[in-house]
C-alpha cells in the first residue's frame, strides 16, 4: 500500500528510463502512467490524456482495456504458461496459421519477444545461408540511412540513425548503408524520377561492395522513427528488380507498419513488392504481451531442411521466450479483434480524414514543411523556412509536443532527423479512433503550432 508519492520517489531514484531525453532533461521528470481505457490514459496524479501515439511508441493498436485479450492471456497462463525445447504450443500454432493467412507467399513463423530479436534472427538467417550455400560469401547486409532496426549491437549496426548509434561502436562488421528515399529531402534536386533514382542507390552499393559479398537488404516499408518517410513513386518495383537480379534476400522490417497500422495487414502490401523475410513486433499483440515474429518464405525455410546435413542449422537458434504461450495467445486475439471490428477499414477511413486535416494545417502554418503518411500513421516535418527547408530547432518540436501534452493530447516525435535535427512530429492513434478523436488531436496540434509561430 504505497502512496503515489512513494511510487514517484521509487521511480525517480530506482529506474533507468527509456527515452529520458524527452522529459528528464528537457521538461520534468517522466510522468507515470497509471490507468487507461480505449484511447484515453491517466497519469498517477489523475490527469487525463488522449493518446495519439498508441502507447507512446505506436504499439497499443487496438486500444487500452481490451478484456478479450486480457482473458485470452489469463486463460492461457492458467492452462500452461510456458514450454519450449521439445514442444510447440497450441496458441503458437493457431497464431502462426492465422498470421500466415494474411501474408500470401510467406510460410514460416519464428517467435521471439522484441523487434530487435526478430531482426537479429533475420540477419542470422542471411549469415547461415551464406555459410550453407555460398561458401561464406553473400554475407553482407545493406540497410538504409534513416531506418532503424533495434537496440542490440547488430541491429544498431544495421540502423541508419547516427543519433541512435551514438557511443555504441565498434559495430558488427558486414553492414553497409544506402541513402534514404525522402523526396522532400531529395539528394538530386527536383527530379521527376526521384523514386527510381533513390532505389538505384541499392545497385550502386552492391556494385561498390561486390555482388558476391552482398546477401540481403533490410528496409522499413515506411521509415518510422527516422521521420515517417513514405516511399516515393516507383521505388519498390526497382528495389524488387535489383534484389532478383543480384540474388539478395529482401527483409522488410514491419515492426511499426505491420499488423494494420497503414490500413492493410502489412505496409508492403500497398506496394509492388514481395519480401523473403518479414519481421514484426510492437502491435503484434498491441502491447498486451511481448511477442515478435520473423516470417520467411518456404524457399528460405527449405535452405535449412533440403539437405539432412543442414538440419542442425535450423534448430541452432533458441529463444527462451519464443516458448512463452501468453504472447501468441494475446496476438491471436489481437488479430481476431482487428477482423471482428473491421478495424482495417476504420484505419483507411480515419487515416484519410487525418491526412485531410493535416494538409489543412500545412496550409495555415508555414512551419509545416511536409505532411506524409499512410493509414493511421502520419508525420509532419517542421521547418523554419519553407524555401530552404531549414529544420526548426529541436526545442521547438519538443515545445509543441509538450504544449499538446499540457492540453491533454499526447503526440509523438521521431528521432533526430535530417541534418541532425529532430524536426518531425508523429501521429499514430489507435485503430479505434473516430472523427471526434482525430479532431481533438489535430485541434490540439493546430493550437500548439499557432502558439509556436502564429498563423501565416
Ligand atoms: N524496427 C523498427 C522499425 C522499430 O521502430 C523498432 C522499435 N522502435 C525496432 C525495430 C526494435 O524493436 P524493439 O524495441 O521491440 O526491440
From TrEMBL:
Q: Which cofactor does it need?
A: pyridoxal 5'-phosphate
Q: Which GO terms describe its molecular function?
A: pyridoxal phosphate binding; transaminase activity
Q: Which InterPro entries match?
A: Aminotrans_3, Aminotrans_3_PPA_site, PyrdxlP-dep_Trfase, PyrdxlP-dep_Trfase_major, PyrdxlP-dep_Trfase_small
Top-rank lineage group of the source organism: Bacteria
Q: Which CDD domains match?
A: OAT_like
Instruction: Tell me which Pfam families the record gives.
Output: Aminotran_3
**Sorted UniProt keywords:** Aminotransferase, Pyridoxal phosphate, Pyruvate, Transferase
Q: Which family does it belong to?
A: Belongs to the class-III pyridoxal-phosphate-dependent aminotransferase family.
This protein's name: Taurine--pyruvate aminotransferase
Amino acid at each position: 500500500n504505497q502512496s503515489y508519492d512513494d511510487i514517484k520517489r521509487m521511480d525517480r531514484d530506482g529506474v533507468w528510463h527509456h527515452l529520458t531525453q524527452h522529459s528528464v532533461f528537457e521538461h520534468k521528470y517522466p510522468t507515470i502512467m497509471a490507468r487507461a481505457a480505449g484511447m484515453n490514459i491517466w497519469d498517477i496524479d489523475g490527469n487525463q490524456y488522449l493518446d495519439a501515439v498508441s502507447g507512446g511508441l505506436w504499439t497499443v493498436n487496438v486500444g487500452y482495456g481490451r478484456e478479450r485479450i486480457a482473458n485470452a492471456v489469463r486463460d492461457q497462463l492458467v492452462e500452461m504458461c510456458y514450454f519450449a525445447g521439445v514442444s510447440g504450443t497450441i496458441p503458437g500454432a493457431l497464431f502462426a496459421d492465422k498470421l500466415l493467412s494474411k501474408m500470401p507467399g510467406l510460410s514460416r513463423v519464428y517467435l521471439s519477444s522484441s523487434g530487435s530479436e526478430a531482426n537479429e534472427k533475420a540477419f542470422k538467417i542471411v549469415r547461415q545461408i551464406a555459410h550453407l550455400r555460398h561458401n561464406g560469401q553473400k554475407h553482407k547486409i545493406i540497410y538504409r540511412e534513416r531506418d532503424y532496426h533495434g537496440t542490440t549491437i547488430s541491429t544498431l549496426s544495421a540502423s541508419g540513425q547516427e543519433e541512435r548509434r551514438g557511443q555504441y561502436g565498434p559495430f558488427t562488421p558486414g553492414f553497409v548503408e544506402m541513402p534514404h528515399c525522402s523526396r522532400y529531402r531529395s539528394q538530386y534536386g527536383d527530379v521527376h524520377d526521384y523514386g527510381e533514382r533513390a532505389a538505384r542507390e541499392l545497385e550502386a552499393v552492391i556494385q561498390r561492395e561486390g555482388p558476391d559479398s552482398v546477401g540481403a537488404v533490410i528496409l522499413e516499408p515506411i521509415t518510422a522513427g527516422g521521420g515517417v518517410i513514405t516511399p516515393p513513386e516507383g521505388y519498390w518495383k526497382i528495389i524488387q528488380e535489383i534484389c532478383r537480379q543480384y540474388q539478395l534476400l529482401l527483409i522488410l522490417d514491419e515492426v511499426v507498419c505491420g499488423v494494420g497500422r497503414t490500413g492493410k495487414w502489412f505496409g508492403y502490401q500497398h506496394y509492388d513488392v514481395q519480401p523473403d523475410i518479414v519481421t514484426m513486433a510492437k502491435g503484434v499483440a498491441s502491447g498486451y504481451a511481448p511477442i515478435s515474429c520473423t516470417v520467411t518464405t518456404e524457399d528460405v525455410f527449405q535452405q535449412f531442411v533440403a539437405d539432412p546435413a543442414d538440419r542442425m542449422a535450423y534448430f541452432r537458434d533458441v529463444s527462451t521466450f519464443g516458448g512463452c504461450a501468453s504472447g501468441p495467445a494475446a496476438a491471436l486475439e489481437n488479430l481476431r479483434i482487428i477482423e471482428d471490428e473491421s478495424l482495417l477499414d476504420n484505419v483507411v477511413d480515419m487515416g484519410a480524414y487525418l491526412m485531410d486535416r493535416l494538409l489543412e494545417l500545412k496550409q495555415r502554418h508555414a512551419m509545416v514543411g511536409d505532411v506524409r503518411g499512410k493509414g493511421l500513421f502520419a508525420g509532419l516535418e517542421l521547418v523554419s523556412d519553407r524555401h530552404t527547408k531549414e529544420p526548426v530547432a529541436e526545442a521547438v518540436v519538443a515545445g509543441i509536443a509538450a504544449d499538446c501534452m499540457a492540453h491533454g493530447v499526447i503526440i509523438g516525435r521521431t528521432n533526430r532527423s535530417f541534418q541532425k535535427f529532430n524536426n518531425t512530429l508523429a501521429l499514430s492513434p489507435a485503430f479505434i479512433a473516430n472523427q471526434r478523436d482525430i479532431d481533438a488531436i489535430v485541434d490540439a496540434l493546430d493550437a500548439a503550432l499557432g502558439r509556436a509561430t502564429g498563423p501565416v
